């Protein structure tokens, strides 16, 4: 039962942090290394690392449900609440594909290296700080910019989608944060925090789904039926808390911007450095 409780806690950490710019993978590694030790009850580091990726499917489901109207439009169906005139620019699947290409290619090329060398507390601490610096720079640039700000996700151009995709590449480093990297990238190219966050969450669905399925395919031989309950509990926990987190974050991001999250990351890294080392 305590092992199932540990799975629930990891799902909670994943769901609450996946879409905030603080790094869900980094937080799961931190919580796991310092307290939960999931490798012990999974019996293999391969299964433990895959668990941390697969429970992201719960967070993916939360995005699909909360952004279902936008996904309807992108797939060619008219959303129930869509009242935009014909010819109005709309986000489409090509935007998402362009945004996914850079990180998708690098992820396939360096997946093994990332699993073997970057899933550690030391690398996460570095990513937390460097990611925080990027977020602070993005907010300062926007504050001093006089460009017209893109307020909605439907105004994103293909070029801006590609630039956000380039920034997403650094999120392959656990601890950097996918949302932190891509929201910062969107802000740097002239998007509002909310528009950048919306596009980040939409892009997250295919890339997180692909990463989860790839990890499952690679480590399938390590699974036993004994591990299934942990995955189910982690998945449900991640889904429930991701719904809560996304709703809260989207209401908050245009008000507080990125700097408060950056300060949290730096303080967290400093505390963990002194506790751990």
Describe this structure in words.
With about 280 residues, the chain is an all-alpha fold. Helix content is about 75%, strand content about 0%. It is built from 13 helices and no strands. It has helices at about 1-15, 25-35, 40, 45-55, 55-65, 70-75, 95-115, 120-145, 160-170, 180-190, 195-220, 230-255, 260-275. Helix 5 (about 55-65) crosses helix 12, helix 7 packs parallel to helix 9 and helix 10 packs antiparallel against helix 11 (about 195-220). It is globular, with a radius of gyration of 18 Å.
> Residue share in helices?
over 70%
Distance between the termini: 32 Å
Rg over CA atoms: 18 Å
Q: Which residue ranges are poorly predicted, with pLDDT under 50 across at least 5 consecutive positions?
A: none
Approximately what portion of the residues adopt beta-strand conformation?
under 5%
Number of distinct helices: 13
SSE arrangement, N to C? HHHHHHHHHHHHH
Structural class per helix/strand content?
Answer: mainly alpha
Global morphology: globular
Mind summarizing the main beta sheet? none
Query: Which whole number gives the mean pLDDT?
Result: 87
Count the beta strands. 0
Primary descriptors:
277 residues; mainly alpha; 13 helices; 0% strand
What is the structure about, briefly put?
This protein has helices spanning 2-17, 24-36, 38-42, 45-54, 56-66, 68-74, 93-117, 121-143, 158-168, 178-188, 193-219, 228-256, 259-276.
């Amino acid at each position: 039962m305590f092992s199932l409780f540990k799975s629930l806690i990891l799902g909670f950490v994943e769901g609450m942090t996946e879409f905030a710019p603080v790094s869900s993978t980094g937080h799961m590694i931190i919580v796991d290394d310092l307290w939960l030790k999931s490798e012990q009850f999974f019996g293999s580091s391969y299964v433990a690392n895959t668990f941390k990726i697969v429970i992201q499917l719960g967070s993916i489901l939360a995005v699909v449900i909360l952004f279902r109207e936008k996904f309807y439009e992108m797939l060619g169906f008219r959303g129930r609440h869509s009242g935009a005139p014909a010819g109005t620019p709309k986000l489409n699947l090509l935007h998402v594909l362009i945004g996914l290409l850079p990180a998708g290619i690098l992820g396939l090329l360096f997946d093994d290296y990332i699993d073997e060398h970057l899933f550690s507390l030391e690398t996460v601490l570095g990513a937390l700080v460097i990611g925080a610096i990027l977020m602070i720079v993005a907010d300062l640039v926007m504050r001093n910019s006089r460009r017209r700000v893109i307020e909605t996700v439907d105004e994103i151009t293909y070029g801006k989608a590609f630039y956000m995709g380039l920034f997403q590449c650094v999120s392959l480093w656990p601890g950097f944060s996918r949302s932190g990297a891509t929201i910062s990238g969107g802000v740097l190219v002239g998007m509002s925090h909310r528009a950048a966050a919306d596009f980040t969450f939409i892009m997250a669905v295919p890339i997180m789904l692909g990463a989860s399925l790839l990890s499952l395919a690679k480590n399938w031989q390590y699974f036993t039926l004994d591990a299934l309950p942990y995955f189910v509990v982690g998945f449900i926990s991640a889904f429930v808390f991701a719904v809560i987190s996304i709703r809260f974050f989207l209401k908050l991001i245009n008000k507080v911007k990125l700097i408060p999250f950056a300060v949290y990351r730096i303080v967290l890294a400093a505390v963990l450095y002194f506790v751990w080392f």
